[in-house]
């Protein structure tokens, strides 16, 4: 062929060379050509764009070390490659490519060579190649004439032509070097595709292509091949980097893979196959967007660079309890073992898991010591290879980790007592391998050490300061001990928790869903399937004769099983199965008995033995959820939960079945966090449970079910949301609001509220009284009182019950008062508990109301006239109903056995409320809301919130003890737990005195303030100072600045100035100058009368000064003075040293509280101390060195009390 005959592609009409993803000529040739390039027909793919965003922001210049001095940028350059580093281009440029069957028309192609592939494109603007050739499958490079060379593989030959002999030589040298490097760096067990096996591979239809393509999802890329043969040869069409991809469902069998350059529309054979492809591609996206920082650090140790089980290179998964690094394929089988054997986490995606301690643990332990223990005796015939199949992996991993078949036996194996002793000794050293061997051979991770101060190995490790040992023990707290059971068949599926469970029969099934089923599913949407539950796998077939299942659900992947009420869907009885892959499967049956049997069998298949007690009762929802509770708030654990009616039962790994939570008795039920990280908070007296939304689908189902179960389920008293004392929350809310806002309201309970407002309020209270917050200005007291009366009147059985109503009315006619009261007490004892508690709460409230009858005009008789017909549900004609109520109010103390202490607290509460309302009226402000206060433990975070009812008599000490009791936090000797008032706007905080009443402080809190209970670290040092200090005075120089903005003058207050202060038992005095020294007193003589003077008991002293004032030192406090006219004055004081700050603050406390700074009662330290403690956490963590803190006032204002520590 002459050069004249070798026409360039630029001379060929554009219609002949339409851009496509495939090469040219497949349809024209009709058959393979072993000597030429098997290209595609351009006309078969007209209209299919090959991308090409001509956007400079997507381009980047190539490295200067390339053979070509300057290369045009490529659209995919500059995009992050996710988990894999971007492969640099070795050489790129224009080449003429030899067409198929020796055609004389040359086709100009943009060719790129990197370490893995040789690719060619229509132009240098295209994102996706027409063809790629794996460098590993290239056998040799040969010159074939003027400027031409061949790229020869085992089965194919590709011919190219350069512009000159020099350029041809450069290309051949670059290719030969790339091939040599590829042969040295990888064995490529499958010949051409590299050592990484695909996560999923198979045939798919691609819109615009006549024939199916072979698609492989490998790591973070999706590769397209013409067919399976070319897949094995390593000659493909193109690959898609999933760092710029997104997948979504299109219709029943189709889905779209979208990139900035084009949309790939695929179709699968079935809906199940489509779901599997979607899952694989979503995994590729996650891997592409992941970070390899943790992986690179862990791979720094040589054994960690290869899978601990099969030896595959660059494993990016790990078992955090076994402390081994594994590949993705082995990780899938590890999950099947269950969390009791292996806790699998990704090195690249589970970023929050990988703390510095855990990373260091893997560097110290990892695959080297791990395999020396777990794989000490693996026969060569049973060893895994990177290309081993799923069955072989499953059998090997079961034998290795569940049975411990290959482990190195410890010399103490079989002697439990000695193993436990050896473990307690090992955890106090740095010998992690010894600890691993002991635990793997049966030592008890929670065994008793014999030391009451450190009763467990974890406590011993903490005592010895062995943080890595502590991390290893925590991760293995729930790990099962390996046991070799010779009676079990070798071929079993080890992911089964209870392999004896089996069941089969016909079920009606709908297509799986990725969201909750909000709408009713009709019968027509169900398909009849033959279902088999065996070996921990629920398989469903087209019919009972089918051999291949349509799909399957592994029991180890089930996270929740739910049973909707009958007739929820087209089939009367249904149940839902939720999986880890965020899929929901709905099954239906006509028979209740058959449905119950299926539910029990499936539940037994995925529930571990420790949670079997949950199956003793029928349930509405059953499953596992991550949770935090008690003192273990640093890390979430996995617990098992079942919901039955309004009871939520839980089984936690560290203990037996917990006492069920009565959802209708919760003090709080709330959802915290954002939509991505939701936390369900359940607060019951003395315990708080945080359930985390790790998986959105099943968590949303649990959330709705728990909220529904916690709401009122009927009209009777026992079906309402209940408080601590079995009093309905509706009654609580109304009584508290009226006590606070309506005691002095004239005609309270006699006047009626607006009917429409009363009805709306009552409906909201009945629906979820716990979430209703009554506020003055939004609800009138008459509307609330009418809602309470209507609720009591509408009770189906009445407050005094139909059975006992006449007995109560008859008792009112007894003439002897003592006999009548005795009869009332007898009848009261016969009432159901909820009714009895409600009667006492209501009469106690009415007793308080009549105490203010001079103002509200509602004495005992008037209240009886109103409530008699309401409580006994009469028409008002029977006077005996009113007489019963009047007798109960008059004899309240005797009938309900109210002691003097309870009565005193009640009167103090009422007195405090009235005083505050009078003060609020005088100052033009009105306090509203009920006595519910949010208090934090140690720091302001969502998972440290506590919502508590604050009576008027509650002191700061009582509040502190209540919070610590709820969280089961023990108080040790010299632990000074205190309630702090924190003002975020002023960046200051004030420790409340232990005798200070909380309710007035609560009403005075602004929107920027809150209460927090934490340790007062400086108290010990202050008590020592006061013990050694003579007298109750303090004097000295301080920096002073006044805040005049509070006075409404709008004047600038200037900077800080030196002033002399004298503090004594009556006042704080400020002097501008000092004239001389008084020799007999040691105190300077002031030049004149004090410039300012304030009564010391009217001052509130806060630690901290807001940073925008630029205080001269870090040691300051804010002082607030409230005048008799309720006007506030505020100023700021700064000391030179920490010691001065401590001494001034201690003296303030001393003189304000008559020398009683801290209570001397031993009750504060007599409570039992739990094994684990929370410790002390700063309000805001300090940052920087001491010098930096001195320069930065922000550090001081973040946590001023921290500056007083260790002084």
Describe what this molecule looks like in 3D:
- There is one protein chain.
- This protein is α+β, with helices and mostly antiparallel strands.
- It is 30% helix and 22% strand.
- Strands 19, 20, 21, 22, 23, 24, 25, 26, 27, 28, 29, 30, 31 and 32 form a 14-stranded antiparallel beta sheet that branches.
- Helix 19 packs across helix 24.
- The radius of gyration is 39 Å and the shape is globular.
Taking the alpha carbons of the first and last residues, their distance comes to: 96 Å
Q: Main sheet, how many strands, which sense, barrel?
A: 14 strands, antiparallel
| Percent range for β-strand residues | 15-25%
Portion of residues within helices: 25-40%
Indicate the overall shape.
globular
Nutshell version of this structure?
The protein is built from 32 helices and 46 strands.
Keywords:
8-stranded antiparallel beta sheet, 32 helices, single chain, disordered N terminus, disordered C terminus, alpha+beta, 1207 residues, 46 strands
């Amino acid at each position: 062929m002459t050069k004249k005959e070798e026409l360039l592609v630029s001379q060929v009409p554009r219609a002949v060379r339409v851009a496509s993803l495939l090469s040219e000529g497949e349809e024209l040739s009709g058959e393979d050509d072993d000597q030429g390039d098997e290209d595609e027909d351009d006309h078969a793919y007209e209209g299919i764009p090959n991308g090409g965003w001509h956007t400079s922001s997507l381009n980047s210049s190539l490295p200067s070390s390339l053979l070509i001095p300057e290369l045009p940028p490529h659209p995919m350059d500059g995009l992050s490659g996710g988990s894999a580093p971007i492969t640099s281009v070795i050489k790129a440029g224009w080449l003429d490519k030899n067409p198929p069957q020796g055609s004389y028309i040359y086709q100009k192609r943009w060719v790129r060579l990197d370490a893995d592939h040789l690719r060619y494109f229509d132009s240098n603007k295209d994102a996706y190649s027409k063809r790629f050739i794996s460098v590993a499958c290239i056998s040799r490079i040969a010159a074939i004439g003027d400027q031409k060379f061949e790229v020869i593989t085992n089965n194919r030959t590709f011919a190219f032509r350069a512009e000159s002999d020099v350029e041809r030589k450069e290309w051949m040298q670059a290719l030969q070097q790339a091939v040599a490097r590829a042969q040295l760096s990888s064995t490529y067990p499958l010949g051409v595709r590299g050592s990484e096996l695909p996560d999923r591979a198979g045939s798919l239809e691609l819109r615009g292509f006549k024939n199916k393509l072979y698609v492989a999802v490998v790591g973070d890329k999706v590769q397209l091949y013409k067919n399976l043969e070319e897949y094995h040869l390593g000659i493909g069409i193109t690959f898609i980097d999933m760092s710029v991809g997104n997948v979504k469902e299109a219709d029943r069998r189709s889905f779209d893979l979208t990139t900035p350059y084009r949309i790939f529309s695929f179709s699968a054979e079935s809906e199940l196959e489509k779901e599997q492809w979607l899952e694989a591609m979503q995994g590729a996206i996650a891997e592409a967007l992941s970070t390899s920082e943790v992986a690179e650090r862990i791979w720094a140790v040589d054994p960690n660079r290869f899978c601990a089980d099969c030896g595959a290179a660059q494993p990016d998964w790990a078992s955090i309890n076994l402390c081994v690094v594994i590949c993705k394929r082995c990780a899938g089988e590890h999950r099947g073992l269950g969390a009791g054997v292996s806790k699998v986490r990704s090195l690249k995606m589970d970023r929050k898991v990988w703390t510095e301690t855990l990373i260091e643990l893997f560097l110290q332990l990892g695959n080297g010591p791990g395999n020396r223990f777990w794989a000490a005796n693996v026969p060569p015939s049973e060893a895994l290879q990177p290309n081993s199949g799923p069955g072989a992996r499953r059998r090997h991993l079961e034998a290795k980790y569940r049975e411990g078949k290959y482990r190195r036996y410890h010399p103490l194996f079989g002697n439990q007592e000695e193993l436990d002793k050896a473990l307690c000794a090992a955890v106090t050293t740095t010998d992690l391998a010894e600890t691993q061997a002991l635990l793997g051979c049966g030592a008890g991770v929670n065994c008793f050490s014999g030391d009451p101060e450190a009763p467990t190995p974890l406590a011993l490790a903490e005592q010895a300061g062995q943080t890595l040992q502590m991390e290893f023990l925590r991760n293995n707290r729930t790990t099962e001990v390996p046991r070799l059971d010779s009676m079990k068949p070798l071929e079993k599926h080890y992911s089964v928790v209870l392999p004896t469970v089996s069941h089969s029969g016909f079920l009606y099934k709908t297509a799986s869903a990725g969201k909750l089923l909000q709408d009713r599913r009709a019968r027509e949407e169900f398909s009849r399937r033959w279902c088999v539950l065996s070996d921990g796998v629920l398989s469903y077939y087209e019919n009972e004769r089918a051999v291949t299942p349509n799909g399957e659900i592994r029991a180890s992947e089930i996270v929740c099983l739910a049973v909707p009420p009958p007739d929820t869907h087209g089939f009367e009885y249904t149940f839902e199965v939720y999986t880890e892959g965020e899929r929901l499967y709905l099954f239906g049956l006509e028979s209740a008995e058959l449905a119950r049997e299926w539910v029990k069998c499936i539940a037994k298949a995925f529930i571990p033995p420790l949670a079997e007690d949950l199956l003793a009762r029928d349930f509405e929802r059953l499953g596992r959820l991550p949770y935090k509770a008690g003192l273990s708030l640093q890390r979430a654990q996995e617990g098992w939960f079942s919901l039955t009616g309004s009871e939520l039962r839980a089984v936690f790994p560290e203990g037996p079945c917990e006492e069920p939570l009565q959802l209708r008795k919760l003090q709080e039920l709330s959802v915290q966090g954002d939509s991505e990280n939701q936390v369900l908070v359940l607060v019951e007296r003395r315990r708080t449970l945080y359930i985390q939304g790790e998986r959105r689908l099943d968590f949303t189902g649990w959330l709705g079910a728990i909220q529904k179960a916690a709401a009122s389920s009927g009209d009777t008293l026992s079906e309402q949301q209940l408080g601590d004392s079995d009093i309905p929350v509706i009654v609580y809310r109304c009584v508290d609001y009226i006590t606070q806002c309506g005691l002095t309201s004239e005609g309270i309970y006699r006047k009626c509220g607006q009917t429409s407002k009363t009805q709306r309020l009552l409906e909201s209270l009945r629906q979820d009284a716990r979430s209703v917050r009554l506020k003055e200005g939004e609800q009138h007291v008459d509307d609330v009182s009418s809602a309470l009366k209507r609720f009591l009147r509408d009770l189906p059985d009445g407050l005094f019950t139909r059975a006992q109503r006449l007995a109560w009315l008859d008792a009112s006619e007894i003439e002897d008062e003592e006999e009548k009261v005795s009869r009332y007490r007898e009848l009261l004892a016969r009432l159901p508990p909820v009714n009895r508690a409600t009667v006492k709460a209501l009469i106690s409230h009415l007793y308080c109301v009549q105490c203010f009858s001079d103002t509200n005009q509602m004495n005992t008789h008037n209240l009886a006239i109103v409530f008699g017909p309401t409580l006994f549900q009469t028409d008002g004609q029977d006077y005996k109903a009113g007489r019963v109520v009047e007798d109960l109010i008059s004899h309240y103390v005797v009938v309900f056995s109210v002691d003097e202490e309870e009565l005193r607290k009640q009167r103090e509460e009422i007195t405090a409320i009235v005083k505050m309302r009078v003060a609020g009226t005088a100052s033009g402000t009105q306090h509203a809301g009920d006595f519910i206060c949010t208090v934090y433990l140690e720091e302001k975070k969502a998972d440290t919130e506590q919502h508590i009812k604050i009576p008027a008599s509650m002191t700061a000490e009582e509040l502190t003890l209540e919070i610590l009791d709820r969280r089961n936090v023990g108080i040790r000797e010299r632990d000074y737990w205190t309630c702090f008032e924190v003002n975020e706007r002023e960046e200051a905080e004030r420790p409340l005195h232990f005798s200070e009443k909380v309710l007035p402080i609560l009403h005075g809190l602004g929107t920027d303030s809150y209460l927090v209970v934490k340790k007062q670290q400086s108290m010990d040092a202050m008590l020592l100072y006061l013990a050694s200090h003579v007298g109750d005075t303090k004097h000295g120089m301080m920096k002073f600045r006044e805040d005049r903005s509070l006075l409404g003058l709008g004047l600038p207050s200037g900077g800080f100035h030196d002033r002399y202060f004298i503090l004594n038992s009556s006042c704080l005095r400020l002097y501008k100058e000092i004239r001389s020294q008084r020799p007999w007193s040691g105190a300077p003589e002031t030049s004149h009368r004090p410039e300012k003077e304030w009564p010391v008991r009217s001052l509130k002293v806060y630690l901290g000064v807001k940073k925008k004032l630029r205080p001269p030192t870090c040691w300051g406090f804010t002082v607030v003075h409230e005048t008799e006219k309720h006007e506030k004055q505020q100023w700021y004081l700064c000391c030179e040293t920490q010691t001065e700050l401590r001494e001034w603050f201690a003296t303030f406390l001393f003189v304000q509280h008559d020398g009683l700074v801290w209570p001397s009662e031993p009750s504060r330290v007599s409570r039992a101390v739990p094994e684990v403690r929370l410790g002390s956490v700063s309000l805001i963590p300090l940052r920087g060195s001491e010098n930096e803190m001195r320069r930065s006032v922000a550090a001081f204002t973040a946590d001023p009390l921290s500056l007083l520590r260790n002084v």
